[in-house]
Amino acid sequence: VGCDRSKNLVDICGEKHFQAFVCDALSVPMRSGSCDACISIAVIHHFSTAERRLATICELVRLLRPGGMALIYVWAMEQQYKNQKSKYLKEKNDSKGKGKEINTSTTQRLLTDQVPGSSRQDSACSDQLINDLKDEGCDARPMGADSRLPVHTNRTSFQSQDLLVPWHLKGGTKKKEESVDTVLVPADSKESQELSPIFHRYYHVFCEGELEAVCRSLDCVRVQKSYYDQGNWCVILEKL
Questions:
Q1: I need a labelling partner for 32 at 20 to 30 A (CA). Which of 6, 69, 98, 107 fits?
Q2: Residue limits of the Methyltransferase type domain (predicted)?
Q3: In this structure, what CATH number is given to the domain that contains residue 216?
Q4: Which helix (H) or strand (E) element contains residue 215?
């Protein structure tokens, strides 16, 4: 069973005869302990505070039966690791000569981001976690409403853990009687050259050891494996 915040993506799953529903990762409408395994791919890095990222993992763990496993992937701050560039960085070079690349350097100004207010649930645990991450060299401070975030240049190394990534809205060309599909495409892709406006998606990219530290802060799980995979930090955990 799949779930996503996007109704359009869930509808695509339905068209392919997969089971999926719309929901919020902070409140999944499923019975506690009902899953043998859970997968969270490219979700948790969109939450704007340490408290919300922790709460999302707690919700994932709640769904697992004892002995159940979860796999979590988040975007890594380190897009070059052990002298190897990630696919994300390599695609910038691969795209040369395939069309003019969108130059987002002019948007490298600081924008005010209206970050949603965070819940104080688990605040004591989160505050301790934040201090632990600071000791490890991670900037894991919660983003405030007045915080200013840099706009990332696509296919380049990250300069900040908390940032906005530009995306273009893509409108399909269909017959009048057909509905128009709307999807997001990266700002530097060739599909984006005739598209507007640009949307900015919030990301918190994780530094080495950060995701593992968040998971280890929970008494009810055991981290089975922590590893790097193509620009992502990944954890496999087991519910005790």
A1: 6
A2: 1-72
A3: 3.40.50.150
A4: helix 210-216
CB 134 within 8 A of CB 62: no
Q: Are residues 227 and 163 part of one domain?
A: yes
Domain contains 160: yes
> Could you give the maximum distance between any two Cα atoms of the chain, in Å?
59
How far is the CA of 210 from the CAs of 11, 74, 94, 205, in angstroms? 34, 10, 30, 10
Q: What is the pLDDT along the chain (240 residues), one digit of tens a residue?
A: 999 999 999 999 999 999 999 999 999 999 999 999 999 999 999 999 999 999 999 999 999 999 999 999 999 999 999 999 999 999 876 655 443 333 333 333 333 332 333 333 334 444 555 566 556 556 544 445 556 899 999 999 999 999 999 987 776 544 444 443 445 556 555 655 555 688 899 999 999 999 999 999 999 999 999 999 999 999 999 999
Q: What whole-number distance in Å separates Cα of residue 213 and Cα of residue 138? A: 11
Q: In this structure, is residue 217 part of a structural domain?
A: yes
C-beta separation of 189 from 180 below 8 A: no
160 and 219 co-located in one domain: yes
166 and 210 in a single domain? The answer is: yes
**Peptide bond preceding 166: is omega within 30 degrees of 0, i.e. cis?**
no
Q: Is residue 60 in some structural domain?
A: yes
Is the CB of residue 57 less than 8 Å from the CB of residue 236?
no
